[in-house]
């Protein structure tokens, strides 16, 4: 996401990459990759990724856990901060 207003940290400027909020994640079992996941979402993305991962990871004998679609569709919550990362854009 870039802005056309000059002087902002994320202003459109030649030779500069835009700030992104994607958080790709890789789950390992030992040294073996078992799942890649991530989510867009600005300030909430790390919270949503954690909820998804725990929903899938808790398939261990301690909890019943969810399959991938169940973890995606499960009810979720998040905390918002003020000002948000996209302020004043939204």
Automatic annotation (TrEMBL):
- Reading the lineage from the top rank, the first entry is Bacteria
Entry-linked InterPro entries: GGT-like_enzyme, GGT_ssub_C, Ntn_hydrolases_N
Q: Where is this region: Disordered?
A: 1-25
Which segments show compositional bias classed as Low complexity? 12-25
Protein name from the UniProt record? Uncharacterized protein
């Amino acid at each position: 996401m870039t802005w056309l207003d000059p002087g902002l940290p994320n202003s459109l400027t030649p030779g500069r990459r835009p700030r992104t909020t994607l958080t790709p994640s890789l789950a390992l079992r030992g040294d073996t990759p078992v799942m890649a996941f991530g989510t867009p979402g600005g300030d909430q993305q790390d919270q949503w990724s954690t909820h998804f991962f725990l929903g899938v990871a808790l398939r261990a004998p301690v909890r019943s856990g969810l399959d991938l679609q169940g973890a995606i569709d499960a009810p979720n919550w998040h905390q918002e901060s003020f000002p948000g990362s996209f302020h004043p854009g939204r």
